[in-house]
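Margin note from the TA: students keep mixing up input and output lines. Inputs are the sequences; the output is the structure of the whole complex. Example:
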Amino acid sequence: MSRVYNFSAGPSMMPEWVLKKASNEMLEYGATGQSVMEMSHRSKEYEAIIRSCESLLRELMNIPDNYKVLFLQGGASSQFAMIPLNLMTKNHKADYVTTGQWSKKAMAEAKRYGTVNEVASSADKTFSYIPDVDAMKFDPEADYVHITLNNTIYGTKWPKLPETGNVPLVADISSMALSEPLDVSKFGVLYAGAQKNMGPAGLTVVIIREDLIGEPQEGTPTMFQYKIHADNGSMYNTPPTYSIYMCGLVCQWLKEEIGGLENMKKINEEKAAILYDFLDHSKLFKGTVEPGSRSLMNVPFVTGDEELDKKFVAESKAAGFVNLKGHRTVGGMRASIYNAMPVEGVKALVAFMKKFEEENA
Amino acid sequence: MSRVYNFSAGPSMMPEWVLKKASNEMLEYGATGQSVMEMSHRSKEYEAIIRSCESLLRELMNIPDNYKVLFLQGGASSQFAMIPLNLMTKNHKADYVTTGQWSKKAMAEAKRYGTVNEVASSADKTFSYIPDVDAMKFDPEADYVHITLNNTIYGTKWPKLPETGNVPLVADISSMALSEPLDVSKFGVLYAGAQKNMGPAGLTVVIIREDLIGEPQEGTPTMFQYKIHADNGSMYNTPPTYSIYMCGLVCQWLKEEIGGLENMKKINEEKAAILYDFLDHSKLFKGTVEPGSRSLMNVPFVTGDEELDKKFVAESKAAGFVNLKGHRTVGGMRASIYNAMPVEGVKALVAFMKKFEEENA
């Protein structure tokens, strides 16, 4: 077996521990005589799997009891509509902060369902920083404030949370879920496409404060109503059963093999430090993000020469470092170093970058 | 290894050939050094997988070139809204035929977006038959006619297609997709949740005639617009990548191991005949569906005695026949004998039923 170091922004690397367990259990899960994929979602066997996944998530993320955990489909892109359809129901207005393409998409969708106020934006410098959090002025009448806590494409992360008073804070945490502890009680809604740190593509996890689950806007498709999914324990219709099982395995790995999110954060900080430290001292490569806004998960960098960037991407791929090409809208390179990327992977990448630097100085 | 015979209505049995291949490829797909689950959906490696799945589906189902194949999420329940939101756009009315709980749900959702005419219903006899197809009168001004071609819960299948003239016929084929050939050109839209015959839960396949893909109703969430998905080759956002890979493996199995849908139909007819023939002659068990409306896939039956039904379900489970309990809204028993259920599974079940009959006469 020769597995590559996969720096994909998502879907992305999964822990080998998880993949091995999934492979071993593919034809028969425990003593059930079935694959998890074949289980009726209404069976006792499967009920145990989904509830175990939820309970591990609650434990790892320290989710308060007055929050529901929903296992949905459709990715963050579906949440871009579900959030306004379900939450923009009192004053029909919301505050958005624009820190990249995904928050722009979220805002554009929300504008279709109410009045949107763009509180701040970092579009002026290609989203290479998070706007001054202390300077943001939020509307106390807004139904919610929406932010993208980690920006996959531009490699930024909010250095701290904004003060929104009584207005619920809604955050897209797709590319940082489970990478470090978060104080869930500071949020009204957290949502994530699973395909970075939580499991396979096709599962969307929503963590929502119970008092925010109410009557949605008129015309909201039944499947886009949080209330329907909350009232039915994510079993209104058939959930993405296998992806939830995989998410449970990832949680088990985080708990048993890593020791929880505090430990995961330390490992992620170690990995990020190796890469950022190299970038800060390199004569060829440089990071594109302001130091105070750097993501632990997504690290974009450039040589400053497009041809050299291409050469690097090609040579690194040949050497077993795949998906280092930057997002099609940004160019350059990007190393996504999610939970499953081992420290050795980052060290090996930096060694390769050093060699490339020497050869191309 | 001791795999059970799983008669679940869905998620349901998958071919062992498929599960073994998936298990073997879990850590490394071909020479890519990655699991399919870890692949960027924008990578060449994954592009090949999704296009191969589509091309196998097109070949197996003989899908004409003027139809798009969309790989979506959210199950048939999401289609219940997507169909009216995208198709009820000319005269804002549609015809529905009610043949069970799922078609009722589809109709209820459509009523939220336009005028719905219930053309026929079999509610009077607990949906144990398909209403007279020749007697149905459709509105030539309707934007479409919606039917559920196979009814999972009640075990009925339309004996023939209705004549709808120029009005597009839309059919939910969740529980019969890939079980037999269908003339796709007779339909405007076909849709299916994958979790019966096509792959894991979390994938929804929509086959839609290109001229029906247009501007949806105002306010339709972006992710509920067929046009968005069609224009982006099902890659507007991250699709359920692994489930699509599994669907491709199922198609490969159908093509290479079974020899296509004509052969699959023969096998399915053989299985169904074994079970129906037994039910027709049994002194204890009897089928609940009128002979002319019987499904090849879902076979509900009863003893006529609730206590005996319970005893049968318990004893059959202990003997390795699982998920034979009827739907919670119907009671009795139901054997779902999808593509992956081997002939031996049905023979073994009938042998067990005979023994139970003798012991409980």
